[in-house]
Amino acid sequence: MGYEFIQVSADQSVGILTLHRPAVLNALNLKMVDEIVEELERMDRDDSIRAIVLTGNDKAFAAGADIDEMADESVIPMLLKDQFAVWDRIAKVSKPIIAAVSGFVLGGGCELMMNCDIIIASETTKIGQPEVKLGVMPGAGGTQRLTKAVGKVKAMEMLLSGEPITADEALRYGLINKVVPVELYLHEAVKLAKQIAAQPPVAVRLIKKSVLKAIDIPLDEGLDYERNCFYLLFASEDKAEGMRAFIEKRKPDFTGR
C-alpha cells in the first residue's frame, strides 16, 4: 500500500497491521498514526476482511509518542494541530481489532492498545503511561480508558508514578485478555481473530457496538440498544442460516448478509 511506517498482510479473512519503526521501538510519530488509521479504515471497508490484528514486534508494540516531534512545540501550534483528533476515528472502526502486544507498550502505545477490542500479550510485556515523567500527561485517552479498565486507584498509581506494570498484573486488573509466551502472542491473536472472522459479520459488528455502548450509557439505555440490535438481526440472511444450520446439525455458512 506504499506505507512508510506500517506493514500490511492478511491470513485468510484476518487483516494484520504491523507497526514498523524498529529503530525507535515503534515510537508513534504523526505520519505513523495517520497510516495506522488509514489502513484500519481501509480494512474496515474490505468485505474480505472480517477481523483485524494490530501488532508490533517482540521488543515493542510501541514505546510511546515520538518526543522529537513535540519537544520544541508550544501551546498554540499544538492546539491548532489537534494531533489527537485522528485517534477518534479508531473507535469508529466497526470490525473487531485484536492487539497482539509484546515488550514495551508505553504512552501512546498503551493508548493505541486500549483502543483495541481484545488484547493478547506476551509474558515480556510492560504496560504504562510514563508521560508525567516528561512534564505532561496522556492526551489520546490514557486517563480515561485506563481508569475505565483498571479502576480509579490503580489508574492513579500508574499515571502519577509513570511506572509500568507487567503483563501478569495487567491481566489481574482486566486490562488485557491473555498472557502467553513471547513466541506465541501473535499466533494466539491471529487464531482468535480467525474464530471471530468465522462468525456472522453483521452480528459481530452489532455486538461490538453494543459492548462499547455499555461503557458509556446507563443500563436501561444499554438494554434498549441491545434489544433493538437483537431484533434487527432477524432481518439478516445469516440469522436464518445460523438457525437452520443449528437445527440441521451442520456448520453454518455465513455470508455477511
TrEMBL record:
Family matches, as Pfam families: ECH_1
Keyword Iron: no
UniProt-listed Gene3D superfamilies: 2-enoyl-CoA Hydratase, Chain A, domain 1, Lyase 2-enoyl-coa Hydratase, Chain A, domain 2
UniProt key word GTP-binding: no
PROSITE patterns listed in its UniProt record: ENOYL_COA_HYDRATASE
Record keywords, A-Z: Lyase
PANTHER family in the record: ENOYL-COA HYDRATASE, MITOCHONDRIAL, ENOYL-COA HYDRATASE-RELATED
Similarity comment text for this entry: Belongs to the enoyl-CoA hydratase/isomerase family.
Name of the protein in its database record: Enoyl-CoA hydratase-related protein
Provenance organism: Effusibacillus consociatus
